[in-house]
Amino acid sequence: xxxxxxxxxxxxxxxxxxxxxxxxxxxxxxxxxxxxxxLGWLIVGLFLLISIIASFQYFTHYYKVTTxxxxxxxGIVNKNETxxxxxxxxxLKQQQWFFFKPFHVVRLSIETAGGxxxxxxxxxxxxxxxxxxxxxxxxxxxxxxxxxxxxxEIPANQILLFSLTNLSMFATFVALxxxxxxxxxxxxxxxxxxxxxxxxxxxxxxxxVAGGSVLLLVSVVSIIKNMILxxxxxxxxxxxxxxxxxxxxxxxxQKIPLTKIQGVQIHQQVLRKLFGLVSVEVLLASGQEExxxxxxxxxxxxxxxxxxxxxxxxxxxxxxxxxxxxxxTSRDKVWYFLRIPLAIMIPLSIGVFFIRPWLSLIALVLGxxxxxxxxxxxxxxxxxxxxxxxxxxxxxxxxxxxxFVARPKIQACQEETSKWxxxxxxxxxxxxxxxxxxxxYLRLKYIxxxxxxxxxxxxxxx
Length: 462
Known about the structure:
The chain is of the alpha+beta class. Helices cover 42% and strands 29% of the residues. Helix 6 packs antiparallel against helix 9. The protein is globular.
C-alpha cells in the first residue's frame, strides 16, 4: 500500500461538526438580531459555507503508508507534507465513537518523541481499523492474542466506588450548597429564613432535604459519567507496549511504549483510603494533545491497594515496584507548615468580620481546612532512595501521592532556602521531570540538610 488515500467519508461529517462549533456564536447572534424572513436564508448560507469548508478538507487531505514511513498530506492553499518514520512513532491513540463502529473506522493520533508537547505529530481523523493493524506490523509491534492473565479489567463495583469517592463531585456539591438561596425561588427563601423561631426547625429540615437532593443528583451524574468513561476499562501488556482501552460511546485505545514512561504515581484520596483504594497514573514524555481528556493517563484508575503491586508486577515488571519504606522528613516541623496559613487567615477573618460578619465564619472554616491540609502534608512528606530510583511522597490538598522515578528521567535538581531557614539548616528540594505538556516536579519542603545531601548525591550519582 503506497498510493495516496483519502480518509473515510465519515470524516467529512466530523469536519462539518467541528466547523459548526466554530460558528456557534454567529448563529446565536443571528437568532437574536435578525428578523424571521432573512434569518432562514442566512442560516442556510452559513451551513453551506461550513459544508464547503468541510468538503475542501475532505478532498485535500490524504495519507500514504509506505514501507518505511507514514506520510500525511494536508492544506488547502499551503500544502503540507509530514513524514513520520515508523521507528520514531512512540504512541498510537485510537478513538472510536459509537457512530464509527458500524464502518470499522477509528480516529488515530500518532505521537513521537520529538513532537510538540501540546499536540500529536499527526492525526488521521477517520481510517479503517486495518490501517492501525498495518502500522503496528510495520512498527514491529504486531498485536497478538492476549490472554486474560496478561491484562487487568476494572470491576463495575470499583468504578461505582471511584465515582462516589470523587472529591471533585463534593466540591461541586459545596458550590451548589453555598448558592442554595439563589437556586430556589425567592418566596421559598424568604419563608424559610424569616418566619421566625417557631418555623426554624421546619426550615432547616427543608434545607437539609434540598441539600441531600443536590448531593444525590451530583452523585448520580458522577456515576453515569465514570461508567461511560471507564466502561470495560482494560490495560494489557504486549512486548514493550502498554495498551489502555476504555469508553462506552467513544472507545479509546492508547498504546504507550515503556520508553515513554517517565514515572509512576500512586494517588490516594482521603475518602478512598477508608476503602483501601488507590489510583495509579503514569507520567509520560511530551506528545499529548492539548484538550485531550486522556492527558492524565491512569494505568489503573482505581484498584485495591492490596492487589496494586501484584498487577503492577504483571504490567511493569522492569520497575520492580514494592511498598516503599519511607523516611519521613517533616513530622517534627509542623510549625513551619502552619505558620503561613495562620499569618494569612487570622488577619483576614478579623478584617472580614467588620465588613460582613457571616463572611468571617466562612474565612474561619477555610482557614481550618488549610491548616488541616498543611499539617497532613507535614505528616506524610517523605522519601526513599533505591539503587537507581527514588520514591517521594507528599500530600497535596486531600490526596496523598507517591511518585516513583528512575534517576535518568530526572531533568534537574533544585534546592531552596531563605535567610531565616538557612541558619537552621532547613531546605526545600525540587526534582524536575519532563512531563506531558510541561515539566512535572517533585518537591519536599522544610527538610534537614542531611536529607538534601542524600537526594543531591543520588541525582549526581555520587
